[in-house]
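Feature request, filed as a ticket because there's no other form

It would be nice if the structure record came with a short human-readable summary line next to the C-alpha coordinates. Right now we just get the raw output. Example of a typical job, pasted below so the devs can see what we mean:
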Amino acid sequence: MQSPVMADINECEKFPPVCKDDICNNYLGGYSCSKKAWKKPTTKSALQAVQGTSISSGLLLLFFCLWFLYKIIKKRRKIKRKQKLFRRNGGLLLQQQLCSSEVNVETIKVFNSKELEKATDRFHKDRILGHGGQGTVYKGMLTDGRVVAVKKSKIVDESKLAQFINEVIILSQVNHRNVVKLLGCCLETEVPLLVYEFIPNGTLSKYIHDQNEELPLTWEMRLRIATEIAGALSYLHYAASFPIYHRDIKSSNILLDEKYRAKIADFGTSRSVSIDQTHLTTLVHGTLGYLDPEYFQSSQFTEKSDVYSFGVVLVELLTGQRAISIRRSEEAGKSLATYFILSMQQNRLFDVLDPHVLKGKKADIMVFANLAMRCLNLNGRKRPTMKEVTAELERIQMSEKKNFNVPQDSEEVEDLRTQDFEPWEVVSMSTGPASDTGLASSSHELPLLSFTSL
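Raw output as currently delivered:
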Protein backbone atom coordinates (compact mmCIF):
# COMPACT_ATOMS: atom_id res chain seq x y z
CA MET A 1 0.00 0.00 0.00
CA GLN A 2 1.34 3.32 -1.02
CA SER A 3 1.85 6.01 1.81
CA PRO A 4 0.10 9.36 1.36
CA VAL A 5 2.16 12.36 0.17
CA MET A 6 2.44 15.17 2.81
CA ALA A 7 1.43 18.68 1.61
CA ASP A 8 4.12 21.30 1.95
CA ILE A 9 3.22 24.32 4.21
CA ASN A 10 4.70 27.65 3.10
CA GLU A 11 5.83 29.26 6.38
CA CYS A 12 6.97 32.36 4.47
CA GLU A 13 3.34 33.33 3.82
CA LYS A 14 2.40 33.40 7.49
CA PHE A 15 1.55 36.63 9.27
CA PRO A 16 3.28 38.03 11.05
CA PRO A 17 6.37 37.21 8.93
CA VAL A 18 8.47 34.50 10.49
CA CYS A 19 11.69 36.17 9.37
CA LYS A 20 10.59 39.71 10.25
CA ASP A 21 12.69 42.07 8.08
CA ASP A 22 14.94 39.32 6.62
CA ILE A 23 14.33 37.24 3.45
CA CYS A 24 12.32 34.02 3.98
CA ASN A 25 13.26 30.91 1.91
CA ASN A 26 10.69 28.10 1.92
CA TYR A 27 11.48 24.44 1.14
CA LEU A 28 9.73 21.15 1.59
CA GLY A 29 9.33 20.51 5.25
CA GLY A 30 10.78 23.81 6.47
CA TYR A 31 12.13 27.34 5.76
CA SER A 32 15.21 29.45 6.26
CA CYS A 33 15.90 33.15 6.82
CA SER A 34 18.70 35.11 5.16
CA LYS A 35 19.87 38.70 5.48
CA LYS A 36 19.00 41.19 2.74
CA ALA A 37 21.86 42.13 0.51
CA TRP A 38 22.96 45.75 1.21
CA LYS A 39 23.04 47.95 -1.84
CA LYS A 40 25.29 50.94 -1.87
CA PRO A 41 23.27 54.09 -2.66
CA THR A 42 24.11 55.70 -5.92
CA THR A 43 25.93 59.02 -5.97
CA LYS A 44 22.95 60.65 -7.64
CA SER A 45 20.41 59.75 -4.93
CA ALA A 46 22.81 60.79 -2.15
CA LEU A 47 23.41 64.10 -3.87
CA GLN A 48 19.68 64.71 -4.21
CA ALA A 49 19.17 64.03 -0.50
CA VAL A 50 21.95 66.46 0.46
CA GLN A 51 20.61 69.10 -1.91
CA GLY A 52 17.07 68.75 -0.52
CA THR A 53 18.32 69.15 3.03
CA SER A 54 20.48 72.14 2.11
CA ILE A 55 17.67 73.90 0.24
CA SER A 56 15.24 73.38 3.15
CA SER A 57 17.78 74.68 5.66
CA GLY A 58 18.62 77.63 3.40
CA LEU A 59 14.98 78.58 2.94
CA LEU A 60 14.38 78.35 6.68
CA LEU A 61 17.43 80.52 7.37
CA LEU A 62 16.35 83.03 4.71
CA PHE A 63 12.85 83.22 6.17
CA PHE A 64 14.28 83.81 9.67
CA CYS A 65 16.63 86.53 8.37
CA LEU A 66 13.79 88.27 6.50
CA TRP A 67 11.54 88.09 9.58
CA PHE A 68 14.32 89.45 11.79
CA LEU A 69 15.04 92.25 9.29
CA TYR A 70 11.31 93.08 9.12
CA LYS A 71 11.18 93.35 12.91
CA ILE A 72 14.22 95.65 12.99
CA ILE A 73 12.80 97.90 10.24
CA LYS A 74 9.39 97.97 11.94
CA LYS A 75 10.97 98.87 15.29
CA ARG A 76 13.08 101.63 13.71
CA ARG A 77 10.04 103.04 11.94
CA LYS A 78 8.10 102.97 15.21
CA ILE A 79 10.94 104.77 17.01
CA LYS A 80 11.18 107.37 14.23
CA ARG A 81 7.42 107.88 14.32
CA LYS A 82 7.49 108.38 18.08
CA GLN A 83 10.34 110.85 17.71
CA LYS A 84 8.41 112.71 15.02
CA LEU A 85 5.26 112.84 17.18
CA PHE A 86 7.35 113.94 20.18
CA ARG A 87 8.76 116.86 18.18
CA ARG A 88 5.35 117.70 16.69
CA ASN A 89 3.70 117.70 20.11
CA GLY A 90 6.20 120.19 21.52
CA GLY A 91 8.65 117.79 23.12
CA LEU A 92 11.73 119.83 22.21
CA LEU A 93 10.20 122.94 23.75
CA LEU A 94 9.40 120.98 26.89
CA GLN A 95 12.97 119.71 27.10
CA GLN A 96 14.26 123.29 26.80
CA GLN A 97 11.94 124.39 29.60
CA LEU A 98 13.01 121.46 31.78
CA CYS A 99 16.67 122.40 31.30
CA SER A 100 16.04 125.98 32.40
CA SER A 101 16.67 126.85 36.04
CA GLU A 102 13.23 128.45 36.36
CA VAL A 103 11.37 125.13 36.17
CA ASN A 104 11.31 122.56 38.94
CA VAL A 105 12.12 119.40 36.97
CA GLU A 106 10.94 117.13 39.79
CA THR A 107 7.34 118.27 39.32
CA ILE A 108 7.12 117.12 35.69
CA LYS A 109 7.46 113.59 34.37
CA VAL A 110 7.52 112.80 30.67
CA PHE A 111 5.99 109.33 30.33
CA ASN A 112 6.66 107.03 27.38
CA SER A 113 3.75 105.56 25.47
CA LYS A 114 4.64 101.97 26.36
CA GLU A 115 4.44 102.80 30.05
CA LEU A 116 0.95 104.29 29.76
CA GLU A 117 -0.28 101.54 27.43
CA LYS A 118 0.73 99.00 30.05
CA ALA A 119 -0.82 101.06 32.85
CA THR A 120 -4.19 101.24 31.07
CA ASP A 121 -4.16 97.75 29.52
CA ARG A 122 -3.75 99.34 26.07
CA PHE A 123 -6.53 101.84 26.84
CA HIS A 124 -9.07 99.07 27.30
CA LYS A 125 -12.71 100.11 27.41
CA ASP A 126 -13.06 98.58 30.89
CA ARG A 127 -10.55 101.19 32.15
CA ILE A 128 -12.64 104.17 31.04
CA LEU A 129 -13.53 106.51 33.92
CA GLY A 130 -15.50 108.96 31.83
CA HIS A 131 -16.01 110.75 28.53
CA GLY A 132 -16.07 114.48 27.86
CA GLY A 133 -16.16 116.99 25.07
CA GLN A 134 -12.36 117.11 25.12
CA GLY A 135 -11.52 113.43 25.40
CA THR A 136 -11.63 110.22 27.42
CA VAL A 137 -10.17 109.54 30.86
CA TYR A 138 -8.76 106.09 31.70
CA LYS A 139 -7.80 104.59 35.02
CA GLY A 140 -4.27 103.21 35.11
CA MET A 141 -1.65 101.80 37.47
CA LEU A 142 2.00 102.71 37.07
CA THR A 143 4.84 100.27 37.69
CA ASP A 144 5.49 101.87 41.10
CA GLY A 145 1.93 101.01 42.16
CA ARG A 146 0.47 104.51 41.89
CA VAL A 147 -3.08 104.70 40.54
CA VAL A 148 -3.49 107.51 38.01
CA ALA A 149 -6.02 109.00 35.62
CA VAL A 150 -4.81 109.25 32.00
CA LYS A 151 -6.58 111.75 29.79
CA LYS A 152 -6.55 111.06 26.05
CA SER A 153 -7.69 114.06 24.04
CA LYS A 154 -9.82 113.82 20.92
CA ILE A 155 -8.12 116.41 18.75
CA VAL A 156 -4.83 118.24 18.45
CA ASP A 157 -4.20 121.73 17.11
CA GLU A 158 -0.58 121.91 16.02
CA SER A 159 -0.66 125.70 15.89
CA LYS A 160 -1.23 125.88 19.65
CA LEU A 161 1.20 123.24 20.88
CA ALA A 162 3.71 125.80 22.17
CA GLN A 163 1.02 127.32 24.38
CA PHE A 164 -0.01 123.84 25.46
CA ILE A 165 3.52 123.03 26.67
CA ASN A 166 3.75 126.28 28.59
CA GLU A 167 0.42 125.55 30.23
CA VAL A 168 1.50 122.03 31.19
CA ILE A 169 4.59 123.43 32.86
CA ILE A 170 2.61 126.06 34.77
CA LEU A 171 -0.12 123.68 35.91
CA SER A 172 2.32 120.93 36.84
CA GLN A 173 3.74 123.34 39.40
CA VAL A 174 0.33 124.20 40.85
CA ASN A 175 0.43 122.83 44.36
CA HIS A 176 -2.85 123.11 46.23
CA ARG A 177 -4.62 120.40 48.20
CA ASN A 178 -7.92 121.21 46.46
CA VAL A 179 -6.61 121.11 42.87
CA VAL A 180 -6.13 117.78 41.10
CA LYS A 181 -2.39 117.35 40.61
CA LEU A 182 -0.99 117.04 37.08
CA LEU A 183 1.77 114.44 37.30
CA GLY A 184 3.10 114.63 33.75
CA CYS A 185 2.42 113.98 30.09
CA CYS A 186 3.26 111.76 27.13
CA LEU A 187 4.13 113.44 23.83
CA GLU A 188 5.01 110.47 21.58
CA THR A 189 1.41 109.59 20.72
CA GLU A 190 -1.01 110.93 18.10
CA VAL A 191 -2.44 113.30 20.69
CA PRO A 192 -0.65 114.23 23.92
CA LEU A 193 -1.68 112.25 26.99
CA LEU A 194 -1.98 113.91 30.37
CA VAL A 195 -1.49 112.02 33.61
CA TYR A 196 -3.25 113.14 36.80
CA GLU A 197 -3.51 111.83 40.32
CA PHE A 198 -6.50 109.50 40.64
CA ILE A 199 -9.44 110.78 42.72
CA PRO A 200 -11.56 107.80 43.82
CA ASN A 201 -14.98 109.11 44.84
CA GLY A 202 -16.19 110.64 41.59
CA THR A 203 -17.78 114.02 40.94
CA LEU A 204 -19.63 116.42 43.21
CA SER A 205 -22.46 116.38 40.66
CA LYS A 206 -23.08 112.70 41.39
CA TYR A 207 -23.47 113.34 45.12
CA ILE A 208 -25.75 116.35 44.61
CA HIS A 209 -28.09 114.92 41.97
CA ASP A 210 -27.90 111.16 42.60
CA GLN A 211 -27.99 111.27 46.36
CA ASN A 212 -26.83 108.23 48.30
CA GLU A 213 -28.79 107.47 51.46
CA GLU A 214 -25.73 105.79 52.98
CA LEU A 215 -23.69 108.97 52.53
CA PRO A 216 -26.01 111.99 52.36
CA LEU A 217 -24.47 115.34 51.47
CA THR A 218 -25.18 117.20 54.69
CA TRP A 219 -25.29 120.99 55.07
CA GLU A 220 -21.94 120.90 56.88
CA MET A 221 -20.36 118.88 54.04
CA ARG A 222 -21.79 121.24 51.42
CA LEU A 223 -20.46 124.25 53.27
CA ARG A 224 -17.01 122.69 53.63
CA ILE A 225 -16.89 121.66 49.96
CA ALA A 226 -17.94 125.16 48.85
CA THR A 227 -15.20 126.68 51.01
CA GLU A 228 -12.57 124.30 49.61
CA ILE A 229 -13.52 125.07 45.99
CA ALA A 230 -13.50 128.80 46.67
CA GLY A 231 -10.06 128.56 48.26
CA ALA A 232 -8.68 126.64 45.28
CA LEU A 233 -10.07 129.19 42.79
CA SER A 234 -8.68 132.03 44.87
CA TYR A 235 -5.29 130.31 44.77
CA LEU A 236 -5.45 129.92 40.97
CA HIS A 237 -6.49 133.56 40.48
CA TYR A 238 -4.04 135.18 42.87
CA ALA A 239 -1.37 132.86 44.31
CA ALA A 240 -0.22 130.71 41.35
CA SER A 241 2.89 131.60 39.31
CA PHE A 242 0.57 133.28 36.82
CA PRO A 243 -3.14 133.99 37.29
CA ILE A 244 -5.07 130.99 35.94
CA TYR A 245 -8.71 131.17 34.83
CA HIS A 246 -10.41 127.79 34.86
CA ARG A 247 -13.21 128.78 32.43
CA ASP A 248 -15.39 125.70 33.03
CA ILE A 249 -16.25 125.52 36.72
CA LYS A 250 -19.17 123.14 37.28
CA SER A 251 -20.13 120.40 39.72
CA SER A 252 -19.03 117.65 37.32
CA ASN A 253 -15.52 119.17 37.22
CA ILE A 254 -15.18 118.98 40.99
CA LEU A 255 -13.99 115.62 42.33
CA LEU A 256 -14.12 114.18 45.84
CA ASP A 257 -11.17 112.24 47.24
CA GLU A 258 -11.16 109.34 49.71
CA LYS A 259 -11.95 111.76 52.56
CA TYR A 260 -14.56 113.60 50.45
CA ARG A 261 -12.41 116.69 50.11
CA ALA A 262 -13.12 118.73 47.00
CA LYS A 263 -10.59 118.98 44.19
CA ILE A 264 -10.97 121.10 41.06
CA ALA A 265 -10.29 119.09 37.91
CA ASP A 266 -10.39 119.32 34.12
CA PHE A 267 -8.49 122.43 33.10
CA GLY A 268 -9.36 121.67 29.48
CA THR A 269 -10.21 125.26 28.58
CA SER A 270 -8.15 126.99 31.27
CA ARG A 271 -5.89 129.90 30.41
CA SER A 272 -2.97 131.50 32.18
CA VAL A 273 -2.65 135.26 31.83
CA SER A 274 0.03 137.81 32.52
CA ILE A 275 -0.29 139.65 35.81
CA ASP A 276 -1.19 142.98 34.16
CA GLN A 277 -3.87 141.38 31.94
CA THR A 278 -7.49 141.97 33.01
CA HIS A 279 -9.33 139.71 30.56
CA LEU A 280 -9.11 137.23 27.69
CA THR A 281 -10.84 137.73 24.36
CA THR A 282 -11.67 134.29 22.94
CA LEU A 283 -14.32 132.24 21.25
CA VAL A 284 -16.95 131.31 23.83
CA HIS A 285 -16.12 128.16 25.79
CA GLY A 286 -18.00 126.67 28.68
CA THR A 287 -21.15 124.80 29.65
CA LEU A 288 -24.74 126.03 29.40
CA GLY A 289 -26.15 126.84 32.79
CA TYR A 290 -22.74 127.83 34.16
CA LEU A 291 -21.73 130.30 31.44
CA ASP A 292 -21.28 133.93 32.49
CA PRO A 293 -23.90 135.97 30.55
CA GLU A 294 -21.48 138.91 30.33
CA TYR A 295 -18.80 136.66 28.80
CA PHE A 296 -21.42 135.17 26.47
CA GLN A 297 -22.20 138.65 25.12
CA SER A 298 -18.72 140.17 24.98
CA SER A 299 -16.44 137.11 24.52
CA GLN A 300 -14.22 138.69 27.18
CA PHE A 301 -13.43 136.26 29.98
CA THR A 302 -12.34 137.70 33.33
CA GLU A 303 -11.75 136.24 36.78
CA LYS A 304 -15.32 137.31 37.55
CA SER A 305 -16.55 134.84 34.90
CA ASP A 306 -15.21 132.03 37.09
CA VAL A 307 -17.02 133.68 40.00
CA TYR A 308 -20.34 133.48 38.15
CA SER A 309 -19.86 129.78 37.39
CA PHE A 310 -18.97 129.16 41.02
CA GLY A 311 -22.16 130.97 42.00
CA VAL A 312 -24.14 128.39 40.02
CA VAL A 313 -22.33 125.59 41.91
CA LEU A 314 -23.32 127.30 45.20
CA VAL A 315 -26.96 127.27 44.07
CA GLU A 316 -26.65 123.58 43.14
CA LEU A 317 -25.39 122.86 46.66
CA LEU A 318 -28.31 124.83 48.13
CA THR A 319 -31.13 123.41 46.02
CA GLY A 320 -29.87 119.99 44.86
CA GLN A 321 -31.10 120.87 41.35
CA ARG A 322 -29.30 120.73 38.02
CA ALA A 323 -27.89 123.83 36.31
CA ILE A 324 -30.13 123.18 33.29
CA SER A 325 -33.40 121.27 33.53
CA ILE A 326 -36.38 120.88 31.22
CA ARG A 327 -38.52 119.90 34.21
CA ARG A 328 -38.72 123.44 35.48
CA SER A 329 -41.61 125.50 34.19
CA GLU A 330 -41.16 128.02 31.37
CA GLU A 331 -41.99 130.77 33.85
CA ALA A 332 -39.25 129.63 36.22
CA GLY A 333 -36.80 129.12 33.37
CA LYS A 334 -34.66 126.14 32.45
CA SER A 335 -31.64 127.86 33.98
CA LEU A 336 -31.09 127.17 37.68
CA ALA A 337 -29.51 130.62 38.09
CA THR A 338 -32.65 132.32 36.76
CA TYR A 339 -34.90 130.06 38.83
CA PHE A 340 -32.91 130.84 42.00
CA ILE A 341 -32.90 134.59 41.38
CA LEU A 342 -36.69 134.60 40.87
CA SER A 343 -37.15 132.56 44.04
CA MET A 344 -35.02 135.02 46.03
CA GLN A 345 -36.89 138.00 44.58
CA GLN A 346 -40.22 136.37 45.54
CA ASN A 347 -38.91 135.57 49.04
CA ARG A 348 -39.33 131.80 48.41
CA LEU A 349 -35.76 130.70 49.19
CA PHE A 350 -36.71 128.11 51.80
CA ASP A 351 -39.25 126.57 49.41
CA VAL A 352 -36.52 125.58 46.91
CA LEU A 353 -33.80 124.35 49.27
CA ASP A 354 -32.62 120.74 49.43
CA PRO A 355 -33.99 118.93 52.53
CA HIS A 356 -30.45 118.32 53.85
CA VAL A 357 -29.73 122.06 53.68
CA LEU A 358 -32.85 122.89 55.72
CA LYS A 359 -31.20 121.18 58.69
CA GLY A 360 -28.67 124.02 58.88
CA LYS A 361 -29.07 127.33 60.71
CA LYS A 362 -31.38 129.63 58.79
CA ALA A 363 -29.18 132.68 59.33
CA ASP A 364 -26.14 130.91 57.83
CA ILE A 365 -28.20 129.55 54.95
CA MET A 366 -29.42 133.07 54.20
CA VAL A 367 -25.85 134.46 54.18
CA PHE A 368 -24.81 131.60 51.89
CA ALA A 369 -27.74 132.31 49.53
CA ASN A 370 -26.99 136.05 49.46
CA LEU A 371 -23.37 135.26 48.59
CA ALA A 372 -24.58 133.10 45.69
CA MET A 373 -26.77 136.01 44.52
CA ARG A 374 -23.79 138.36 44.55
CA CYS A 375 -21.77 135.84 42.48
CA LEU A 376 -24.63 135.70 39.93
CA ASN A 377 -24.81 139.47 39.48
CA LEU A 378 -25.15 140.31 35.77
CA ASN A 379 -22.57 143.06 36.17
CA GLY A 380 -19.22 141.33 36.58
CA ARG A 381 -17.70 144.32 38.37
CA LYS A 382 -20.27 144.00 41.15
CA ARG A 383 -19.45 140.37 41.78
CA PRO A 384 -17.09 139.61 44.68
CA THR A 385 -13.59 138.30 44.03
CA MET A 386 -12.81 134.70 44.91
CA LYS A 387 -10.78 135.99 47.87
CA GLU A 388 -13.89 137.72 49.20
CA VAL A 389 -16.04 134.66 48.51
CA THR A 390 -13.58 132.42 50.39
CA ALA A 391 -13.49 134.78 53.38
CA GLU A 392 -17.31 134.90 53.52
CA LEU A 393 -17.64 131.10 53.40
CA GLU A 394 -15.00 130.71 56.11
CA ARG A 395 -16.99 133.10 58.31
CA ILE A 396 -20.09 130.96 57.80
CA GLN A 397 -18.07 127.87 58.74
CA MET A 398 -16.85 129.58 61.92
CA SER A 399 -20.43 130.51 62.73
CA GLU A 400 -21.49 126.87 62.39
CA LYS A 401 -18.66 125.72 64.65
CA LYS A 402 -19.17 128.37 67.31
CA ASN A 403 -22.96 127.98 67.14
CA PHE A 404 -23.84 131.65 66.95
CA ASN A 405 -25.72 133.58 64.31
CA VAL A 406 -23.88 135.83 61.89
CA PRO A 407 -25.59 139.24 61.78
CA GLN A 408 -26.81 140.07 58.32
CA ASP A 409 -26.85 143.39 56.56
CA SER A 410 -30.58 143.76 55.94
CA GLU A 411 -30.06 146.62 53.49
CA GLU A 412 -27.71 144.52 51.36
CA VAL A 413 -30.14 141.58 51.41
CA GLU A 414 -33.03 143.84 50.39
CA ASP A 415 -30.92 145.37 47.63
CA LEU A 416 -30.10 141.92 46.28
CA ARG A 417 -33.72 140.83 46.33
CA THR A 418 -34.99 143.90 44.51
CA GLN A 419 -32.16 144.03 41.97
CA ASP A 420 -33.26 144.22 38.34
CA PHE A 421 -32.13 141.34 36.12
CA GLU A 422 -32.09 141.98 32.42
CA PRO A 423 -34.63 139.86 30.48
CA TRP A 424 -32.03 138.56 27.99
CA GLU A 425 -30.47 136.48 30.76
CA VAL A 426 -33.48 134.20 30.98
CA VAL A 427 -33.41 133.69 27.21
CA SER A 428 -29.67 133.15 26.88
CA MET A 429 -29.55 130.70 29.72
CA SER A 430 -32.57 128.75 28.48
CA THR A 431 -31.80 128.40 24.78
CA GLY A 432 -29.88 125.61 23.16
CA PRO A 433 -30.09 121.89 23.80
CA ALA A 434 -30.74 120.98 27.38
CA SER A 435 -31.75 117.96 29.35
CA ASP A 436 -32.34 117.09 32.93
CA THR A 437 -29.84 114.30 32.84
CA GLY A 438 -26.84 116.18 31.58
CA LEU A 439 -25.38 119.52 30.65
CA ALA A 440 -24.92 120.68 27.10
CA SER A 441 -21.78 122.43 25.98
CA SER A 442 -22.05 125.85 24.41
CA SER A 443 -18.56 125.91 22.97
CA HIS A 444 -18.31 127.22 19.44
CA GLU A 445 -14.94 125.55 19.05
CA LEU A 446 -13.59 122.36 20.57
CA PRO A 447 -10.81 123.06 23.07
CA LEU A 448 -7.26 122.22 22.08
CA LEU A 449 -6.34 119.50 24.52
CA SER A 450 -6.69 118.93 28.18
CA PHE A 451 -4.88 122.26 28.50
CA THR A 452 -4.69 125.36 26.34
CA SER A 453 -3.11 128.72 26.95
CA LEU A 454 -3.02 132.21 25.65
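Something like this underneath would help us a lot:
The CA atoms of residues 343 and 349 lie 6 Å apart.
Confidence is low (pLDDT under 50) at residues 274-282, 404-454.
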